[in-house]
Specification:
There is one protein chain. This protein is an alpha/beta fold. Helices cover about 40% and strands about 25% of the residues. It is built from 15 helices and 17 strands. The chain has an eight-stranded parallel beta barrel with strand order 1-2-3-4-5-6-7-8, surrounded by six helices. It has a three-stranded antiparallel β-sheet with strand order 12-13-14. Helix 5 packs parallel to helix 6, helix 12 packs across helix 13 and helix 14 packs parallel to helix 15.
Length: about 475
């Protein structure tokens, strides 16, 4: 019986939410949930030029044991940066996305077939230079000229790709047509011997799972899907296929089905689009996490209304400080979103004496050990030490702090971003924790993003201590 490999694309294709709109906390929650299902691979979206994307990938890489595949758009010039963002994963992989239909090649890459083959050879070899495992995804394969598709796959495999994915991006094939393209590739490209073949099928006509089943019967090794509906077969559909037709198709899967329904329900809640239709303040901006934007024309009542919606309960003095800082930012930018407002609140409101101070910390982390953190903090002249373990260095550090204070607070949000550029770039962290129904935010800055995260948590903790005194 053949074991079907299942690749999840939820972080790359999160359905009704745009991938770029997911907060750092949401990405971590999705990654943790998927990791528990024992999938074969979890896919990450292609990174942009922003350092925050790389930092997000690095944190996810440190906390999951599942094979982690990062998408790379051909010709983007970010192969090395993408590799650096996932190299600490236990099983890292690069997934080169390459348009192979004539219309997509010319529209996306502005190249004809011969030049495209040269680019494929160059980019696959570059990926292979950094990473042992390289996937070649033939985007829009069902609209490609057959001869060129075969040449493209041969070129990629010769360059070092050990996985190939055929994508029916337009969702135009019926099951028997898709099976034929899979079978044709296996029969006409000898280089595919020993190479894993996957399929990525659009559900445009509601036949995604049927096409995936036909592809598996024709010789595909695995199928790509999403935990929530996103225009592709879902994890639950693939699990049902294996459960109902596995014996007839001579297939099985390692998917942990006992936790599947609970995990899918949880992710469905996390990935629900944020509804702000009742908000009178602003139109929804897709890239803004809370969907609310403000500008320099908004008065203090508008700003404070959003602050309250975000869960903060500030004094009149702090409200005034926040609005003053907001005006400085709004006069320089076209709009201020809730991410910026979070940072403004953390840096300008609720500034309190430092009950807890960070003395030093030691973090141990890697792809073959469990992350641990050893922290020494001071409170009222007394030194307190805590040791914590976690899914990654930051999770371990937060656990150590909780051991010191003897209390667990709900982490409401966590954001990281770079402040300056270069190898010695300063990193900024924002932590929001919830206590007794109120949200407290803290910010930290350091050339070490873990140190910035620790200081941000301590900053928020000091506000709780001050409020409870």
């Amino acid at each position: 019986m053949n074991t079907v490999k299942i690749i999840d694309m939820t972080l790359r294709e999160p359905g009704k939410r745009n991938a770029s709109s997911l907060s750092f906390k949401e990405k971590l929650e999705v990654a943790r949930s998927l990791d528990r299902l024992k999938l074969d691979t979890i896919e990450l979206p292609a990174i942009g030029a922003a350092k925050a994307d790389q930092l997000s990938n690095k944190t996810i890489a440190s906390m999951v044991g599942t094979t982690l595949s990062a998408a790379v758009e051909i010709g983007c010039g970010l192969v090395e940066e993408t590799w650096e963002s996932i190299r600490s994963a236990k099983h890292p992989q690069l997934n080169l996305l390459v348009p192979v239909s004539t219309v997509q090649m010319e529209y996306t890459c502005h190249k004809k077939a011969p030049a495209m083959l040269e680019l494929i050879a160059e980019q696959v070899k570059l990926c292979r230079f950094f990473c042992e495992n390289v996937e070649f995804s033939a985007v829009d394969a069902t609209r490609a000229e057959t001869d060129f598709l075969y040449k493209a796959v041969k070129t990629a495999v010769s360059g070092g790709a050990n996985r190939v994915t055929l994508c029916d991006s337009a969702g135009i094939f019926l099951p028997d047509e898709f099976a034929a393209i899979v079978k044709g590739l296996r029969e006409n490209v000898p280089e595919m011997e020993g190479i894993e073949l996957f399929v990525e099928v659009s559900d445009e006509m509601g036949m995604g799972i049927a096409c995936a089943a036909a592809a598996l019967t024709a010789g595909a090794d695995g199928v790509k899907c999403t935990a929530v509906p996103a225009g592709f077969p879902t994890l639950e559909q693939v699990a049902t296929l294996v459960q109902k037709k596995g014996a007839d198709m001579d297939i099985a899967a390692n998917l942990k089905t006992t936790d599947l329904q609970r995990t899918v329900s949880q992710l469905d809640r996390v990935l629900q689009p944020i509804d702000n239709t009742d908000s009178p303040l602003r139109d929804i901006t897709p890239g803004d996490i809370a969907g609310v934007t403000l500008d320099a024309n908004d008065d203090i009542s508008d700003v404070i209304a959003v602050v309250k919606q975000m869960g903060y309960d500030l004094s009149e003095e702090d409200n005034a400080k926040v609005y003053e800082a907001f005006q400085r930012v709004a006069n320089k930018k076209h709009f201020v979103g809730t991410r910026e407002l979070d940072a403004i609140i953390a840096s300008s409101a609720m500034q309190v004496p430092s009950s807890y101070k960070v003395k030093n910390y030691v973090i141990n982390s890697g792809n073959v050990i469990t992350a641990t953190a050893n922290l020494l903090v001071e409170r009222d002249g007394e030194e307190l030490r805590g040791v914590g373990v976690g899914d990654g260095p930051i999770d371990a550090a937060f656990s150590a702090i909780e051991q010191i204070i003897g209390h667990h607070y709900e982490l409401d949000d966590f954001q990281i971003q770079t402040v300056t550029e270069g190898r010695d770039a300063m990193g900024s962290a924002l932590v929001k924790i919830r206590a007794d129904g109120k949200v407290y935010s803290g910010s930290g800055i350091s050339t070490d993003i873990i140190g910035a995260s620790i200081r941000a948590y301590i900053s928020a903790l000091n506000k709780i201590v001050y409020d409870e005194a």
